[in-house]
Fold this sequence. Notes:
about 425 residues; alpha+beta
Amino acid sequence: MNHQTNPSYISQDRLENITKHIKENYIKTNKYIGTITAVYKNDKLVFVDIQGLQDRERNIPLKRDSIFRIYSMTKPITSVAMMTLYESGKFQLDDPVHKYIPSWKNLKIYKSGKFPDFQTTDYVNTMTIRDLLSHQSGLTYGFQMKSEIDKAYRENGIGRMESLNTNQTLSDMIEQLKDVPLEFEPSTAWNYSVSTDVLGYLIELISDNQFDEYLHKNIFNKLNMKDTDFFVPKEKLDRFTSNYLFNMGESFDGNGTLPIRQVDRYSVQSGDPILIDDSQMSLFSRKPAFLSGGGGLVSTLDDYINFSVMLLNEGKFKDSQILSNKTIDLMTSNHLFNNKDLLSSTHANTASETTMSGVGFGLGFQILLNPAKNQINSSIGEYGWGGAASTTFWIDPSEKLITVFLTQLIPSTTYNIRRELRTLVYSSLTK
C-alpha cells in the first residue's frame, strides 16, 4: 500500500489534553496503576507522558525505562522476523504449512461434536504461511471460550502463557496441534489464534536458530532494542512493572483462561485493580522453555518506538535495513479473503485487540480501511496492534505519526482507552 504523505503539524497544547484525560479518568480513579503515552511525529518524538506507578505495592514510580509485558504486541515483531526470511528467499507466502511441518498434512476441519468426540471432515484449502500471518489459518486460542475446539486447547494446555511455568516448548505445541481439528477451512475466516506462535516455530526451523537468538540477531540488536526479550534478567528487575487484573468484584479462579497467573493479593479498595503478577516474583524473571511469538515478550517505550520507527521508515532504522519498503507495503495491505473487513470476516465472534468495523488485517497488523465506518478521526492505512495488558501502538504513514501506549491491566477490553487516545492524538493535528 503506497502512502502519499502531506503530513499535518501537531499542537503541543492539544497534546496536553492526553495528560489531562489520563490523569482525571484513569490515574486519579485508580483504573490504571501507571501509564506511558508517547507520540512520534515528523521524524521526532514530540510527546512523552508518564503517570502513576510501576509497582503499586512498593510505591515505585513509573519511569521511561520501565519494562512492560507487551503480550500480543509481540506478534508484529514475530511477523517482521518471519518476513526477513521471506526476503531471503526461504519461503513463499502461499507455501503449504505442511511443507515445513509434515505432521500437519492430514489436519481435519471441525464439523460437529463435543470435546473430545469430534466429527471432522478433510480440508479443501491447504493452510499456508500467509494464513498464519493473517490469522486465517483455522487455529484458535484456548481463552476464546466460544467453541469445542478452544475447549480442546484449554484441556490440552495448548498455547497458554502458563507454559512459562512448564517445560513445554514450541515443538511440543506443534505436536499437540496436529491432533486437534481446525475451527474452519483456512483462508475463509479470521480468528485470533496461536498462529503467530507457530510462526516462531517456523522461524526456528527455517533459520536453524533458536527463536530468541534469531530475534536478537536480526531485529533487537539492529534496532537498539536492548531491553526487549522473553524474560527480565535479575539486574533489570528493579525496572519491571507489576501486572494487574480488572476487579469485577468476584474472585478470580486462576483456571488458566487468561495469560496470567495469580499471586498473593494485597489489600485493595473495592474496584481497584488486583495484583496478579508481582514484578519481583514474576514468571517473567526467568527464561521460559516456551518462547511465545504471539505474546511472550517484555519491552520498553524506547525499544518499541525504535521498532515502530523502522516500520514507519519503510523498513529502515538508522543504518540498518530490516525489510524492503515493498515488503512493508505488502504487510500493511489488507489480506482478508475477498478484501473484507474484520466485521465481515470474523469467525464466531472471536477475541481481538481492535474494533472490527472498517478494519482489515495484514501480515501481522490491523489495517484501517474506512475511518468513517470505524467512526474514528484517523487515516486510511493506519496500522498497529495491542496487547492483553491494555498496551497498544499504531502507525500512520500518511501523517508520519506513531503512538505507543503502555500500561499493565488485563483484560485489554476493560476500558475504551485505545479509541480515546486516537481521538485525542488526531485532534492534536493541524494544517
